[in-house]
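Q: Sequence in, structure out?
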Amino acid sequence: MTTVSTSNPPASTPSNTEVTVVKAHRGWVAVNFAEVWRYRELLFFLALRDIKVRYKQTVLGAAWAMLQPLMVMVVFSVLFGLLMDRKPTIAGIPYGISTFCALVPWQLFAASLSQAGNSLVNNRHLITKVYFPRLLTPSAPVLAAGVDFVIAFGVLILMIAGYHFFDSSYQFQFSWGLLLLPVFTLTAAMTALGAALWLSALNALYRDFRYTITFLVQLWMYATPVVYTAGSIHEKLNPKHADLIMTIYSVNPMVGVVEGFRWAMLGTDAPQPGIFVVSFCVMAFTLWSGMYYFKRMERHFADLV
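A: Exactly. Output:
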């Protein structure tokens, strides 16, 4: 949709009133960021609504934000402890810390993608009744997922401090990589938003995509070094082709996010710069193409949701 404002309203409209005419567009149209900014209060309202709905009439409330990654960490710690002689972790880093550190940005991505991918269908009562920039609909769940991220990040800090205090063999060292944590966090959120723009638009047109979202999130997790490390893959590869294969592997933008998060928080060896570059470029392309496709399909949403 495009909006055109005019200072010459119809005769029946009160004076000094600006009228906004909404016109359907065809073809590829860029996102009107100025219009999105004008509706920023609605974005925060939708995000706040999602947060309230998520925790309303729940027993544990916001505790689910830390229980989910904790349960995943425990399950895989037991699983790898029973089935493998050596857990796929970084030397000198406890497996629980390594896995939970990766789960913090992953849960931000997974929750954002799952909720935003279904956002158009879930908000059909708004889309069919009033006009607002439809881009806000998948953006609000991403913003709301930031609350869970902050809670889980706080738990990660406590876990690191606990290991450091009770286990003298574990020495945690801060590094300048901590300054890049906002970059990795933003990359995870923008990757989720870019993928969600594609999936939410497709889900509005073809309802069977709602089942694809759940499957995609599960598959994406195992394709990301969350319960294992990228180093555990690298050491299994032929040294002649290892760097090339890892660069191709980093086409998954969450590889750079998760490995960067471990490096920044745990002081591990810095991953290859190429991994970050490839992951960031793929994220940018996914977000850019998702916005254009979303805008192209926008005129159909009210009729199909």
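Residues 121 and 207 are 9 Å apart (CA to CA).
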